[in-house]
Every structure is written in C-alpha cells, then in structure tokens.
C-alpha cells in the first residue's frame, strides 16, 4: 500500500511532504495571487491586494506580500477577484435515475407505491450525483464553486447535498455538507395517483398528517410500550418527520404566482418551513411573499427577448421560429397591443430580482432550470432592469452561504476561508466582462474562456499545444498539463503536474498515429519506475489510460487549452 | 366608489404611431391593475330602475343602495349618501346576480381520475384567478358559480363556490367565504367508462356504481370507529390518517352537500336509497334529465335538481329528455335550477331560464328563481345571495330589457358592490396574466373546452395497458 501511495505521489508530483526533492517535484496548492483588485464581499470596493493561498485556504489578504517558498506566483494585474459563486439550488452533477422498464405495475392506479407516485423524500442527492457529469464543468466555468444539489424525481424528489464543483472521481468526494433540505413539487405522476395537481395537494395533506402521527405514535410507544404492538411506518413517512417538525426546510418548486399561493396555502395548513425555489415570476404574489417573509430562490432563466430570436441565420431557423418572426414583423392595432403586453410581461420577469431587492426580501439564485452559458447574460439583464450589482453579488455569494450554513467558510474573500475565487478581466456585471479563471479549494481552473476555437486534434489533426489532464490514482485526483510540440513529422511531449513549477518530465518513445498516442516517462523513486500513457484524442478532448507496472492502470482524461492562454 | 374602469380604452385604430399605442395599452394595464386591487367591497346607488327582487315582487321606479358590499336599502325615494357612485336606472332592470350551480370555470384541474373514489381532492386548491372565462361569465350577469370537480369518478372531489371577483389575483379571494362544502358524485356512463372500460375495475355497470358508494361509506364508518376508539383512549396508538375517509365521514355527518351527476330515473332512485341507508340528506342532482319521471320522489326526499334548459342526446343515457324538465320539477315542489356546465352557455343563463316560459308556462318569478335563489339554496348560500333583500350581498346585474326578454343584454355586473363588468367599458383584452413565451398567434386562439365534465381524463380513457 505504501508503495502505491508513494508511486501516485511521485508520478503526479503529489504532496510535498512525501517527496525528497520537494521544490523540484511539486509545490502543492500554494499560490500568491499578486496585484489583483480584490472585492472581498458584496458592497466592498475593489482594493489592490495580494492573496496568499495555502492548502486550499486563504492564508492572508493584504498588499505587498512576500512570495513564500513552495508557492506559485500568480500575477493578476488589473484582474478583479470575487468570492466563488454558490448555487442556492441546482441539479449540477445530478443524473436522473432511469425509469425501470420492467417494474411491476400497481394493481390499480390508486395502489401505486410511493416510488411510482414520485414520493421519495428519503432519497439523497448523493445517490444521483455523478462526479464526471459535464454540468459540473459547465457551471464552474460560469463561476460557481459550491452548489446545493437536489435529486431529480416526481412529486417529492428528495433531499439535498452541498457539493464543491471541483474535480473528483466519485460523487461523495464532492460533498462538503449534507444540507438535507427537501425538494417538493406539484408534479403529478400522470398514469398513477396522484395524477393531477388536486391529487398532489390532497396527498401532501395525507403525508404530513401521517408523519405527525408516526412521530406521535413512536413517542407513545417509547414512553410506555406495555400492551402495545410496535408502531410501524414506511421510510417515506419517516423521512418526512423532520420536515413536519420544522427541523429542516422544504424547498417548494414555485415558478409563478399561482404556485406560490398554493405552496403557501399548504404551508399554512401543514406548517413546514417554506423556501420558494426556481421562482420565475412572483408577480401578484409579491405582497404575500413580503408579508409571510418567504425566502426566494430566483431562477436564472428569463423569457427570451424578441430581438434575440432574430439573431439566427435564416437556414438555422425552425419553421415555428420563422412563423414567430413573421408574426413580429406583421402589424395591426390589435397585434400591436398584444405585442406591447407581451413585451411588458418579459420586462416584468426581468425586473423581478430588482423588485425583491427593493422589497427587502432575502433571495438567492436557483439554477434548476438555467443554462450555464446563459447565466452571465441573464444576470446582466436583471442588473439592467434594476437589480443593484451589490445585491446581485450577495445573491451569488454571501446569501447562499448563510442559508446553507457555510458563512464561516465560504462567501467572502477573507483570511481563513476556503480559497474559492472567481477571477475576471473586468468588474463583475460589466459588459464584455469575462471569467478568466476559477479557483476551487486552492486549485486553479484556467483557460476557461476560449478566445478562439481550439485546434482540431484527432484524426488527421494536430495535437500541438497544451492539454490539461485529470486522473485519479488511489482515490486522489491529479491535474496537470501535457505539452506537445511538433518535431518534423513526429511530436515531442512533456508532462507537468499542476503542483509543480518544474519543466516536467519528457515523454519518451512518443508515437501519435491516427488519433492515438502512446509513450512513457520515468520517475525516480527507489529506482526508476516506468509510466505508460495510452491516449485517444477526439477533437479538443482525450481519454485514455496511465499504467504503471505492478500498480495497475488508471483512467485519464483531459482537454485542449486555448492556444493564447494569458496565464 | 368610482368606476372600476377609470379611463376610456378605445384606441384610435387610425393612429399610426405604434409607440403611442403601446404606451396607451401599458397605461390601461397599469390603471386596471390599480383599480382592481384597491377594494374588495364597494358602495353603489342605483336610482329609478325596475327592481326584480325575485323573493319580494317587483319594485317599479325603485332605488337600491349597496354599502360596504351589502344591500343597505331597497324601495322608492331612497336618498344616497354623498360620494357614492350613482347609476341612473331609468329604463333599466336590476336583478340579483345570476348563480350557476354547475360550472368548471376558474379552476386549473377538473378531474382526478385515478380512482373511482377521490373524495380527498378539492378543486378549491387550484383556483385560477386569471381565468378569462370568469370575466366572460360576468358579461352574462353571473356573479357566483359552483366550480365543480368532473364526473369521471363515482365519488369525485370537493367543489368550490366562487364569487366572480375577476381582477383579484389571490386565488383565495375567489372563494365565497362561509359557503358550505360541496362534493361531486357521478352515476352512469362516465365513471363506468373511465374505470370499468378504461381500467377493468369496478364499476363496469350501474350495479357496480352502487357498490362503490356502499363500500366507500362502509369503509368510512369503520374509519370513524377506529378514530373514535383512539380519541376515547380505548386504543393508544393513532390509526393512519386518510383524508379520503375523513371526507366521506364528513358527508355522512351532514357537513358536505352532495351534488350528483345523473341522468336516468332508475339510478337516481338508486342513489336516494343509498343515501337514505347512510343517513345522508343534503343532495342536489345535477343534469338529472329524467328527473321529470321521479319528481315526486325527489320532492319527498328533499332532493334538489339542477338541470339544462334543453340540452341532451350527447350520449346514450341522455336521450330520454324534455325541455319541460325544469317546469315539471318546479311544479312538483323540487328546488330546481338551470345550469351551464359550460364556459359559453354560462354567458346567457337568463335566456336558458326564459325557455321555461315557453316550455312549461312558468311565471317570470319562477323562471328567475331558476338562476338566482334556487341555485343559492342548492349551494347553501340562500341567506347571503340569490335575491334583492336588505342585508344580502351587493351582487347585481343590470339589464337593458327584462332579463327574460330575448332582447336582454347585461349592461353592468356588480359583485359585493364593485362593478366587475361594464358593457360601456369592456376592453378587447382583459387578460391579467401574460405568458411572455406564448406565441402571439396562439394568443388569438383562447382554448375553452366545450364540456369540461370530463377534462383531465382523456389519458385514462385511451390508456388500455391494464386491459
């Protein structure tokens, strides 16, 4: 075992303490971010400072810091740095369970199991979490570093976990806390009971009342079991008890005013702690939200504006898009008034965030229905429609940190906090501003914005340039870079760990044919160890195996870095 | 109180400048929103009109004052307090707001068809304050409707009596406060088709329908007994809670009025026997096309009837019908109403009531009762609405002709003293909730189902997987 750990460490320039040749081999997660404009928290002015990061934690924030040993100098002149974003609610990394095709049918629609009815309050998001799901990378690129994730399902999908959007092999490695808030919806199960929203509402009443009785019966039995048969209840009912007792929170999916009224009406009857999640348009329910002090998780998903639809080329349009465009060009007093109403409605959706701010209602964002690539544009629309930049930043950082119980460790840039950072080329919410790098727990993800499309690799293409890789050895993730340079008709290559500032190790016997690469490198550790690479390239990505004789082989994957990477 | 429609809405169609049109429309929307939310009850004074009180004859050249949403005084020579909106009623007719004892407007879901018994569900949970059908009903003088669960199940869901307070956006503001609970039952072909044919379970026949009732009520009695044992301390652990059984027990205890979809005389008598066996007395039959055959039996039981004026033959069990049904039931002493069950028919219930003058020679007052005080009795709200009487709700409709005249057109509809429809101020687009993602071509076509009794059940009908 010891030799395995040692090998993994050596191979991927791992933790310094294991290495004899510390400085040469690797420096760990230590960075000194220099000369950055640091916005430590919402409302704070940008201050030119250095941030020292050690072992994934912010060691100090202040001007003119000295570069300690074993620390990488990361010059960020004129860059703006914000605390990493936190998603109040999301499905990041969640893969919905596949429907069981040969599941037994209920004897009647009314006798469906809890699962068939979509009632699975005992399910944890962790059971559906997939560390290699692409959404983790997508939302990381949008600046998110931590997220509350809910499982997917029907009427009551289940309970949340809080995850870090870092790279990992297994879902459990991502989990930083069990939030265990309960996602609840008005979703009906169509072909079994409850099949409509009235059925769903009635079912909630049954479930909560029975959770209350189950708890009461359990207490009665505990107090005096003499002469009593032990009370029994399902795991679903048991899972609901903490919510019925208001020990934990219920996140009710409530996109529009009607849903908000309904979730609130049920709450008044059943008494759970209500959070409104994926809210798109509070509209007429604003007074209710205000008076009942309901926390809101606003959806980062706005209705499309008319002019955006017109941007596509004629060829790429679907028939109904063409019809819609024709419609927007037509004019008559009646059509004009309909258009005016529709535009006013779109505007009302955009203004929702600003209205919440003015009303003093605490809110953060929900990504349940959001597309990662649209997020910055959507936030800009909210800001343009009246949301202050400070409130927008708070909804992305400090507010979700506080709701999720992470305020001590996340949400601001302060000494002692987790090194989750968003590094931008312009102030946040400024037009054309781009996220250049994201740091999660001291690990840097750079080259997030491709200034031009990466060169085609794979069949007939070139692999020249830098490629990031990630591999997991002995449960620990290792990240680094391959650099390939053209040498006549063949390639030369080096492998450099993220943890080192060394020039890396040369890849010997490098052969690249069709889209496959093979080669090896050697590592000195109580003798020379040979490490083989076998990679398959496909466009800007690759997958493959790393193998070490006597140790086994490990999955490796990665992607092309943009060619003119500024860092 | 001034008009709820504070500005003229006519847009000059010749106006070339789109921007001006857009601004005008936006202003109208904003002003409407303001006008609608500011008050829940109002004051209004109608002067010198023909008052059709329904329960107390006709007052010619009469005055009527509504204050705080209630009728304060009716008679001649009443003087109104200052600052009360006054309507000159010269040549106009005022009657109580029309009440529809059977409709499905203003709710998002009609049928929970997953079981022959779904007493636990309640359409009051899914009121849609944006339903344009409610405004259209106001245009037909209807101020209250009975938003019902559909007829897919033998024992369907609980219904909701709604006041047509269109413009309010809080769904609960539609619920008529204090109105008794009601529930939908259904006999005959609909539940047989959905559950028997569709799913291969009971009931496949009318006999099966009867057994579904008997089993449900027997189960409810067992359930009640279990809870009684727990509450008296005889048992120590609480039984499982079951909202369906709770509701059925409430029906047996007389806390809920039954409204039963029915056509044939034999099954009507069947239900009367079942109800008698379980001691249930509050019953109003709906449709009840063969009611004329069993009118004395209905009257003897105290059962009421809510019928169509002349609508039948839309399925096999609805062939044996007559337009004299309402008159025959009335003459036999059955409290009878005429209903719409339809978002279009609801706009001219006064015409439907007038048909009983041709078919059955009912008096004006008897005909008007069919759409006012009688449906109020069937919904248990007759002490509040259904006639022009001091102390009752200020729910009124003003006609240009006698409402039973074929020329009658509602001019203004008032709910709780607030003008909710005014023919002189009736903009083309009265939507309150605009879907920002709806295509404008779809906006033109407002979907309204012809008959919503079976809404939400098509999937069940075509789902033959369990056959």
Would you mind describing this structure in some detail?
The complex is a heterodimer of chains A (567) and B (467). Chain A has helices at 2-11, 22-25, 134-141, 171-174, 197-223, 235-244, 257-270, 286-291, 306-309, 319-329, 333-359, 375-384, 389-396, 398-403, and strands at residues 31-38, 47-54, 57-62, 72-75, 80-83, 85-90, 144-149, 158-159, 161-164, 175-177, 182-184, 249-253, 273-279, 296-299, 363-366, 421-424, 435-440, 443-445, 465-473, 476-487, 490-497, 505-513, 516-524, 528-538, 541-548, 552-560. The longest helix of chain A has 27 residues, at 197-223. Chain A starts with a helix and ends in a 7-residue tail after the last strand. Chain A folds into three domains: 9-83 and 415-445, Urease, subunit C, domain 1; 87-100 and 108-403, TIM Barrel, CATH 3.20.20.140; 465-560, Quinohemoprotein amine dehydrogenase alpha subunit, domain 2 (Lipocalin), CATH 2.40.128. Chain A contains 14 helices and 26 strands. In chain A, the strands form four sheets. In chain A, strands 1, 2, 3, 4, 5, 16, 17 and 18 form an eight-stranded mixed sheet that branches. With 567 residues, chain A is α+β, with helices and mostly antiparallel strands. Chain A is globular. In chain A, strand 20 (476-487) and strand 21 form a beta hairpin. In chain A, helix 5 crosses helix 6 and helix 11 (333-359) packs across helix 12 (375-384). By secondary structure, chain B is of the alpha/beta class. Chain B has a domain at 97-386: Metal-dependent hydrolases (TIM Barrel). Chain B has 13 helices and 16 strands. Chain B has helices spanning 18-37, 132-139, 189-199, 206-231, 243-252, 265-277, 295-301, 325-331, 349-358, 364-369, 373-378, 440-444, 458-462, and strands spanning 44-52, 58-67, 70-75, 86-88, 93-96, 98-103, 142-147, 155-163, 181-186, 256-262, 283-287, 304-307, 336-338, 396-399, 410-415, 418-422. In chain B, strand 10 (256-262), helix 6 and strand 11 (283-287) form a beta-alpha-beta unit. The longest helix of chain B has 26 residues, at 206-231. The N and C termini of chain B lie far apart (61 Å).
């Amino acid at each position: 075992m010891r030799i395995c750990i040692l090998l993994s460490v050596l191979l991927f320039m791992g933790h310094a303490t294991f290495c004899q040749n510390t400085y040469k081999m690797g420096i760990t997660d230590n960075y000194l971010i220099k000369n950055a404009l640091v916005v430590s928290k919402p409302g704070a002015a940008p201050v030119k400072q250095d941030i020292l990061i050690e072992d994934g934690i912010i060691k100090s924030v202040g001007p003119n810091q000295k570069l300690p040993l074993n620390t990488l100098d990361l010059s960020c002149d004129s860059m703006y740095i914000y605390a990493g974003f936190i998603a109040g609610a999301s499905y990041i990394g969640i893969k919905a369970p596949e429907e069981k095709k040969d599941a037994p049918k209920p004897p009647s629609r009314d006798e469906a199991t809890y699962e068939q009815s979509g009632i699975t309050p005992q399910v944890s998001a962790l059971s559906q979490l997939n560390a290699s799901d692409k959404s983790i990378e997508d939302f990381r690129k949008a600046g998110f570093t931590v997220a509350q994730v809910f499982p997917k399902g029907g009427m009551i999908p289940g309970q949340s976990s809080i995850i870090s959007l870092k790279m990992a092999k297994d879902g459990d490695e991502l989990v930083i806390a069990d939030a265990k808030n309960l996602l609840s919806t008005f979703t009906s199960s169509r072909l079994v009971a409850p099949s409509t929203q009235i059925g769903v509402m009635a079912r909630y009443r049954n479930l909560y009342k029975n959770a209350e009785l189950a708890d009461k019966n359990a207490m009665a039995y505990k107090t005096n079991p003499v002469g009593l048969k032990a009370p029994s209840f399902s795991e679903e009912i048991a899972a609901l008890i903490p919510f019925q007792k208001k020990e934990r929170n219920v996140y009710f999916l409530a996109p529009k005013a009607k849903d908000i009224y309904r979730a609130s009406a049920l709450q008044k009857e059943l008494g759970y702690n209500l959070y409104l999640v994926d809210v798109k348009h509070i509209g007429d329910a604003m007074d209710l939200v205000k008076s009942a002090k309901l926390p809101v998780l606003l959806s980062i998903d706005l209705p499309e504006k008319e002019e955006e639809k017109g941007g596509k080329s004629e060829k790429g349009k679907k028939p109904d898009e063409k019809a819609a465009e024709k419609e927007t060009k037509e004019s008559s007093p009646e059509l004009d008034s309909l258009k005016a109403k529709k535009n006013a409605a779109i505007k009302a959706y955009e203004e929702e965030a600003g209205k919440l701010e003015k009303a003093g209602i605490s809110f953060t964002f929900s990504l349940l229905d959001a597309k990662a690539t649209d997020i910055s544009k959507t936030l800009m629309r909210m800001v343009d429609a009246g949301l202050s930049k400070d409130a927008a930043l708070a909804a992305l950082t400090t507010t979700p940190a506080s709701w999720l119980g992470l305020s001590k460790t996340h949400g601001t840039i302060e000494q002692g906090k987790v090194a989750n950072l968003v590094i931008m080329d312009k102030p946040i919410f400024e037009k054309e501003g781009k996220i250049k790098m994201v740091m999660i727990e001291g690990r840097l993800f750079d080259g997030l914005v491709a200034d031009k499309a990466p060169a085609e690799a794979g069949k007939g293409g070139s692999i020249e340039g830098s490629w990031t890789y990630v591999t997991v050895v002995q449960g620990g993730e290792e990240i680094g870079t391959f650099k390939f340079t053209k040498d006549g008709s063949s390639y030369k290559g080096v492998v450099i760990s993220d943890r080192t500032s060394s020039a890396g190790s040369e890849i010997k016997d490098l052969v690249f044919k069709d889209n496959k690469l093979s080669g090896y490198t050697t590592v000195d550790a109580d003798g020379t160890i040979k490490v083989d690479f076998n990679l398959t390239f496909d466009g800007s990505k690759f997958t493959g195996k790393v193998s070490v004789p006597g140790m086994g082989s490990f999955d490796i994957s990665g992607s092309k870095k943009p060619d003119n990477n500024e860092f | 109180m001034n008009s709820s429609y504070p500005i003229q809405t006519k847009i000059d169609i010749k106006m070339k400048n789109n921007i001006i049109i857009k601004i005008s429309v936006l202003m109208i929307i904003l002003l409407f929103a303001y006008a609608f939310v500011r008050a829940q009850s109002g004051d209004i004074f109608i002067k010198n009109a023909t008052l059709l009180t329904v329960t107390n004859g006709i007052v010619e050249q009469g005055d009527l004052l509504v204050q705080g949403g209630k009728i304060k005084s009716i008679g001649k020579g009443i003087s109104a307090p200052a600052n009360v909106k006054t309507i000159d009623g010269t040549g106009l007719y005022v009657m109580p707001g029309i009440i529809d004892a059977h409709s499905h407007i203003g709710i998002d879901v009609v049928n929970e068809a997953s079981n022959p018994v779904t007493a636990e569900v309640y359409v009051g949970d899914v009121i849609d304050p944006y339903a344009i059908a409610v405004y259209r009903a106001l245009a037909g003088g209807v101020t209250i409707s009975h938003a019902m669960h559909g007829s897919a199940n033998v024992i369907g869901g609980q219904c909701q009596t709604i006041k047509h307070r269109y413009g309010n956006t809080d769904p609960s503001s539609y619920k008529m406060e204090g109105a008794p609970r009601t529930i939908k039952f259904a006999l005959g072909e609909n539940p047989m088709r959905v559950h028997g044919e569709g799913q291969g379970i009971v009931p496949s026949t009318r006999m099966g329908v009867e057994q579904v009732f008997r089993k449900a009520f027997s189960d409810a009695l067992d359930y009640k007994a279990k809870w009684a044992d727990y509450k008296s301390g005889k048992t120590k652990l609480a039984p499982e809670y079951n909202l369906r059984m709770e509701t059925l027990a409430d029906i047996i205890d007389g806390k809920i009025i039954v409204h039963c979809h029915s056509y044939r005389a034999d099954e009507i008598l069947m239900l009367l026997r079942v109800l008698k066996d379980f001691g249930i007395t509050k019953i109003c039959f709906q449709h009840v096309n063969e009611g004329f055959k069993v009118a004395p039996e209905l009257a003897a039981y105290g059962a009421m009837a809510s019928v169509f004026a002349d609508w039948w033959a839309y399925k096999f069990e609805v062939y044996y019908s007559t337009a004299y049904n309402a008159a025959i039931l009335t003459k036999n002493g059955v409290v009878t109403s005429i209903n719409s069950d339809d978002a279009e028919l609801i706009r001219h219930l006064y015409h439907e009531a007038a048909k009983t003058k041709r078919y059955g020679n009912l008096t004006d007052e008897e005909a008007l009762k069919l759409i006012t005080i009688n449906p109020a009795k069937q919904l248990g709200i007759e002490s509040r609405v259904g006639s022009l009487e001091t102390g009752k709700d200020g729910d009124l409709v003003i006609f240009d002709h006698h409402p039973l005249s074929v020329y009658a057109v509602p001019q203004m509809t008032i709910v709780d003293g607030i003008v909710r429809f005014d023919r002189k101020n009736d903009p083309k687009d009265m939507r309150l909730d605009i879907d920002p993602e709806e295509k404008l071509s779809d906006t033109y076509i407002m979907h309204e189902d012809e008959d919503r009794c079976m809404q939400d059940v098509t999937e069940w009908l075509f789902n033959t997987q369990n056959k």
